[in-house]
Amino acid sequence: MAKKSAIEKNKHREQLVKRYAEKRAALKAIAMNQEAPMEERFKAQLDLAELPRNSARVRVRNRCEVTGRPRAYYRKLKMSRIALRDLGNEGMIPGVVKSSW
Question: Record's Gene3D superfamilies (predicted)?
């Protein structure tokens, strides 16, 4: 199980990403527009830098929803390999069976 503080910090980052997503996208569109005046693009870049760092999507870490583990994460299942194996062995995941040959 991961530290509760790390899990909560990541949840807080996810909330910030949702809150600032539209504003961040609008500013990025202005900053990347080559046809806009240079002053306007520079102002958008400065406004983008004023936003909280944790509101950037890249700062959110994918974590297992069962254990909070940050590594060996399967995006499709939203869990780590260890949780997948444990739940698969218990028969909690449909279509997953322990292999034997």
Answer: 1.10.287.1480
Q: Which residues contact 14 (CB under 8 A, 6 or more apart)?
A: 60
Structure tokens at 55: 């509101």
Closest CA to 80 of 95, 92, 69: 69
Q: What number is the average pLDDT over the span 11-18?
A: 96
Q: What is the DSSP letter of 35?
A: T
> For the segment 19-60, what is each residue's pLDDT rounded down to a tens digit?
999 999 999 999 999 999 999 999 999 999 999 999 999 999
